[in-house]
Amino acid sequence: MAEPHQVQPRTEPAPSPTKRSSSKASSVVSRRSSRHGSVGDPTVVKELSKKYESPFDASLAAARKRSQQEKLWEMFATYALQLSCEDPTRMRLANVIKMLQDCGVIDGSSTEEAKLIEKEVLIVCGAFMKSHPNDRDGTKKLSFSAFLALLNHFARMSGDQDATRAYDSLVRTCLEKQPKPRVRVAIAKDLQECKKVLQQFEEPLSKMFLYYAGISLAKLEKIDPKMAQLSPPHMGYAECVTFGRKYGIIAHGVMTTTEFATIYIDSLVKAPADEYGRVLSYEGFTEMLVRVARKVSPVEHIPPEKKLKGLFQLMWLASASSSPRDLKITDVLKTDRINVTKLFLIHFEKHWKKDQYQNYVGSRVSGDEDTDSGDSFTRLQSSGDLGSSPPPSPKSKSTRRLSLCVQSPGKPKEDLKPAVSGRRFTMQT
Q: Compositionally biased, Low complexity: which spans (predicted)?
């Protein structure tokens, strides 16, 4: 009976270093392997000890990988927005070719050889898309996961025996030679100051979010919209655009679709790892509203919470002055039917009355020309999107003057040329 206990310790540790070599605690594996001497694969032990010589090496490597993923995501979103803003979370194959040309991976000149290389890369991309149909919505565009897989595919085709080294070289080349990356505006302070207002409007905003999230989930999961209410609520980009158009955000010279798409990207988590990370949660939805309010009223002396109320004022004006169709959702128990738009209108007017119907963001004055409530409403009404009836007058003795600060879209930034650096990864015929 004693011999099986003697054999057991010799046979069990042998596969241990190899089995655990891919885990995050690689330094622990290295120390265990050294205690067993020749037991296990000495090549793996040597590689691990060389790769992680200190306890901080593994965490630093993970941090570098996260930073690389964040930069790749920003680059992906930038090129996804270049040709169209249909969906900034999906990239066309034409954008992939443009990115590779800008980064110097393939020749972007008009020579015959360059055209041949571009044609061959397009064939490779098309074949890759057919063999990797991992887009849930069935589109022929690349998701971020498919984009990373395509870069890995390019690295394996490079001829380098080490595919990991080839992938790192390709990514480093793309990140070094890309145009100046877009800077994400930090709004942590604004979110903190708007926390009270968001809590006051949580009921209508959450119902509004759930209505559009139900449509997004039905598309993502390909299930019935009623069943989608039971899934984690997330709002997709197409539904965000529908929301923005309905409530007057993407209209009347307030904000362009491209600016709205940029704000949508900035409201997502950094380097989203899965499909649910590339659509808005409720927290991301409220962050998007704060970013939109900051964009609509960029005046520094106005507090962030007042800018947010000014955005709600604009949404109220766009909704109350038209005849919106009912947006109804049913809760899980089917005991309550809520009209989302009317709920928002009633909720806003109740809080607006407490503030004596003040204009939250002030008038936009140009020279000696003053913008009063009649001119502002007439200007919005003349666009044809608003109805002909003015807003309902409140049951109050005070006079309500409405003059929204509507900022016209600024001039587009000039195209920034990529910095010239040594080419590290190229694709040739």
A: 17-31
